[in-house]
Design brief:
mainly alpha, globular
Length: 148
């Protein structure tokens, strides 16, 4: 198959460009894209575990533990034992974390808005539908775990 027909390359290139742009706009806020994603999800789901946050942010649990350790060292999140499950740490934004997130989110939203404004409303609707179809297909053809 010619490389011009490999849709995955276009999707990856788009993802890399979006990630690099967000990384650049988040730098003045003192955050990386994974740190921003973690803070954003924490603002919507306070008390979520590191494992749940890793799934929500599409990173491995060890990666999320590193992200959370760095955020905790900066005073942006607090981690406390769960009331019933002592080995599970609940994670919440601190006041400082909320302030940093507000700044970072305003920066990230500008990128998202610029991207959205590149398309008409009809094109955006079509693009979203097409990307949803891609996800549906890829999830349907993804092989399950190998039998033991």
């Amino acid at each position: 198959m010619p490389s011009s027909e490999r849709l995955g390359a276009y999707v990856k290139r788009t993802h890399q460009a979006l990630h690099a742009t967000k990384q650049a706009v988040l730098k003045p806020a003192g955050l990386t894209v994974p740190q921003y994603a973690a803070l954003l999800h924490l603002s919507e789901h306070p008390g979520i575990s590191a494992a749940g946050l890793a799934r929500a942010c599409a990173v491995t649990p060890p990666t999320m533990n590193t992200v959370l350790k760095n955020l905790q060292e900066r005073g942006l999140v607090d981690r406390t034992p769960h009331a019933w499950h002592g080995n599970v740490l609940e994670t919440r934004l601190t006041e400082a974390g909320q302030t940093v997130l507000a700044d970072a989110d305003a920066r990230a939203v500008r990128v998202e808005r610029a991207l959205a404004e590149e398309f008409t409303e009809e094109e955006r609707t079509t693009l979203i539908a097409l990307l949803d179809r891609c996800v549906d297909l890829l999830e349907a053809v993804r092989p399950g775990p190998e039998p033991k």
